[in-house]
Amino acid sequence: MQPRKLHGVITTATPESSEEERKPEKCLIVTEREVPDLSGAQLLVKVKATAINRADIMQRHGRYPPPPGETEILGLECAGEVVEVGPGCKRDWKRGDRVMALVGGGGYADLCIVEEACTIPIPENWTFEQAAAVPEAWLTASQLLMFVAQAKAGDWVLIHAGASGVGLAAVQIATKVIGAKAICTAGSQEKLDACIARGAAEALNYKDAEGAFSERVLQITEGHGVDVILDCIGGSMYEQNAKCLAVDARWVIYGTLGGTKVPTFDLRVLMGKRASMLASTLRNRDLSYKASLVKNLEQHIMPRFISRECEPVIGKVFYSLESIPEAHRFVESNANIGKVVVSLTDESSSL
Fold it and tell me: Where is the Enoyl reductase (ER) domain (predicted)?
């Protein structure tokens, strides 16, 4: 019997690659690999859609290698149909069941092995593209707000990059699930409008007044400041963020798009507000932790998807694995509002 094959996207870039060599059209290639055997509580999924994440772009640049034991194929989420069920699975999965899943790698492929604990059934009225927009963004946002920051009803939450996939998920979780009040930052009026439409009390253009949004935040909160900051920017917004802190605030850093260095860092800022500075990632968490996030999402957020109180937001859809370099370019341009999804529904099966 011939080994089964899958087709997936890998990067040829390394940390030593030049900027030219790291361009998506230069280093993202579709390659063929054998389909691994299932072990334990795993599912083999025929991928119908996947999505682009900043972590994928970092991996392409050679700065975010996959954890030990993970596939070299990129992609941190997928949606599709069950093809095979592993011997250790506890749910009554059947071939053809529609699922979405968080993965440590392998989402940019026509077949993907997923852990049962990180898999969620797709609602009946959803497309595969909608489902692919959920796992990474909504699990990240719920982790940051509910597990790390432990946001509560009535809290003021400042969400940077509010119109990103994680940002728009966080706005909805904060306001519609937790009962907090959200302020977002973004870089265009269209993005600000998207934040308001999903529940933000205010949305501020960080490009105005050289990024001095802190005074406006203090006005909005009547001098209280914000109880939670979701910060994917890092260094360039440190001073403004510090001025926004309420007493006992939780400042959660989950990205460094604005740099990793803060020359003016002063511990007295945190001490004066009894503030906590926390850092969080998701990809390298263990399976039991990810499983707890999935259970939380199924319990607290999926019912709001069904009732349409919350929704995954898709900014643009690309088609085929070969379009992924173009999709990377689009995300890097910061033009997207919500998730960038890649649909594979027109591709022929490897099986």
Answer: 26-342
Give Cβ neighbours of residue 150 (< 8 Å, ≥ 6 apart): 250
The answer to whether residues 30 and 321 touch, using CB atoms and an 8 Å cutoff, is yes
> What residues does CATH 3.40.50.720 cover in the chain?
138-279
Architecture of domain 138-279: 3-Layer(aba) Sandwich (3.40)
Q: What is the pLDDT of residue 3?
A: 66
pTM: 0.94
Distance CA 122, CA 127 (A): 8
Name the H helices within 157-237: 165-172, 189-197, 214-220
In whole angstroms, give the CA distance from residue 245 to residue 54.
Answer: 27
Q: Which fold has domain 5-134+312-343?
A: Quinone Oxidoreductase; Chain A, domain 1 (3.90.180)
Tell me the C-alpha distance between 288 and 294, whole Å.
10
CA distance 33 to 23: 23
